[in-house]
Design brief:
Blueprint lengths: L1 E5 L5 H10 L3 E5 L3 H10 L3 E2 L3 H5 L4 E4 L4 H9 L13 E4 L5 H13 L3 E4 L2 E2 L1 H6 L3 E6 L2 H11 L3 E8 L3 H29 L4 H8 L7 H11 L9 H18 L4 H15 L10 H6 L2
Parallel strand pairs: 1-2, 1-4, 2-3, 4-5, 5-6, 8-9
Antiparallel strand pairs: 7-8
Helix pairs in contact: 8-10, 8-11, 8-12, 11-12
The structure holds NADP nicotinamide-adenine-dinucleotide phosphate (NAP).
The site of NADP nicotinamide-adenine-dinucleotide phosphate has 24 residues, from α4, β7 and α6.
C-alpha cells in the first residue's frame, strides 16, 4: 500500500521502518529534516517537505507526534495532512492525546470524506523497535478493520474499543493504572531497603505472587540501583496524567491517587528528573 508516516521520534522511527520492511511504499515527514534523511539511509521510501505533500496519494496516513497541539499542527495546520490527503483515505493518530481532540478530528475528517482513528500505543520504545506494541483504537469499526492488517507490522495486538475518542480514553486508563503501580512498587522497594532485606531475594519471592507486575519484572533492578536515564520520560507521563485528570474533571471520576502521583512526579522533575524513566518515583523517597 501507499502509506505515509508523520513524526519519526522514538516511537515513529521504528514503526515507519516496520511498514517499509513489510513492503509498503512509505513516504515520511519529520519536522527536523535530518531525522527523515537518517531514516531513508536505513529503509527504502521517500521523504516529503510538508505533511500535506507527504499525505498526497496515500491510502493510509499515520501520525505519531508529541501532544494535542502537535497533532493539530501536523493534521490541521497550514501545511497539514488535511490539505493533501485524498477523499476515501484513512488517517490514524498514534499520539497519546486527548479524547476531545480525537472527536473533533474525527468529525473534521468526516466532513472531508476522510476516515479518522485515534490509536494510541503502549509498549514503549522496545515495543516499537520489536514490533510488539499494543494499540487501542477508537473510531468507526469498518475503518479499524482496514487499518488493522497494516498496523500488524508493528503491533502484537490491536483492539477496537468503540466510537471516536475511545482509544485515547483507554490509554488514560492504562496510565492511571501504571501511576498507582509504580508508586506502590517504589514504596515496597524503599521499605525493603530500609528493612535491610536482600532486595533480589525479596523480588524473587514476591514476583511470582499477587504483587507481580510488568513494572516489577522490568524495573525493580534499576530502581534499586537508582538508574533512570532511559525509558518513558517523566515529562511525557505528566502530559498523559494531565490528559486523564482533565478528562476526570469532565466525567466526574475520582482519581485521588493519580493526582497524588502526578504531584510526586512534579517533585521528581524538581530533582532534575524531567527526562528520567517513570520508575524514578522512588528517587524522592530515597533522597531523605
Ligand atoms: N516513548 C515511549 O515510550 C512512548 C510510549 C507510548 C506512547 N508514547 C507517545 O507517543 C508519542 C510520541 O512519543 P515519542 O517518544 O516518539 O516522542 P519523541 O521522540 O519526542 O518524538 C516526537 C515526534 O513528534 C515530532 N513533533 C513534535 N511536535 C511537532 C510539531 N509541532 N510539528 C511537527 N512535528 C512535531 C517530533 O519532530 P522533531 O524530530 O522535529 O522534534 C518527533 O518526530 C507521544 O504522544 C508519547 O506520549 C510514547
Amino acid at each position: 500500500m501507499q502509506v505515509t508516516f508523520i513524526g519519526l521520534g522514538v516511537m515513529g522511527y521504528p514503526m515507519a521502518g516496520h511498514l517499509a520492511n513489510a513492503g509498503h511504499e512509505v513516504t515520511v515527514f519529520n519536522r527536523t529534516t535530518s531525522k527523515a534523511e537518517h531514516w531513508l539511509q536505513a529503509y527504502s521510501g521517500k521523504m516529503a517537505a510538508t505533511p500535506a505533500i507527504a499525505a498526497r496519494g496515500a491510502e493510509v496516513v499515520f501520525v505519531c507526534v508529541g501532544n494535542d497541539d502537535d497533532v493539530l499542527a501536523v493534521i490541521d495546520g497550514d501545511n497539514g495532512v488535511l490539505k493533501g490527503i485524498a477523499a476515501g483515505a484513512l488517517l490514524v493518530d498514534h499520539t497519546t492525546a486527548s479524547a476531545i481532540l480525537a472527536q473533533e478530528l474525527h468529525a473534521k475528517c468526516k466532513a472531508q470524506s476522510v476516515s479518522f482513528l485515534d490509536a494510541p500505543v503502549s509498549g514503549g520504545q522496545a515495543g516499537a523497535v520489536n514490533g510488539q506494541l499494543t494499540i487501542m483504537v477508537g473510531g468507526d469499526k469498518s475503518d479499524f478493520e482496514r487499518a488493522e492488517p497494516v498496523m500488524d507490522c508493528y503491533a502484537k495486538a490491536s483492539k477496537y474499543i468503540g466510537e471516536a475518542g475511545s482509544g485515547q480514553l483507554t490509554k488514560m486508563v492504562n496510565q492511571i493504572c501504571i501511576a498507582g503501580i509504580v508508586q506502590g512498587l517504589s514504596e515496597g522497594l524503599h521499605f525493603a531497603k530500609r528493612a535491610n532485606l536482600d532486595t533480589a531475594a525479596v523480588i524473587d519471592a514476591i514476583s511470582k505472587g499477587a504483587a507481580q507486575s510488568w513494572q516489577m519484572e522490568n524495573r525493580w533492578q534499576t530502581m534499586v540501583n537508582n538508574e533512570f536515564e532511559f525509558g518513558f520520560a517523566v515529562e511525557w507521563m505528566r502530559k498523559d496524567l494531565k490528559i486523564a485528570l482533565d478528562e476526570a474533571g469532565r466525567n466526574g471520576a475520582s482519581l485521588e491517587l493519580t493526582q497524588l502521583v502526578d504531584n510526586y512526579y512534579a517533585e521528581v522533575q524538581e530533582l532534575g528528573g524531567n527526562r528520567w524513566d517513570t520508575s524514578s518515583l522512588i528517587a524522592r523517597l530515597e533522597k531523605s
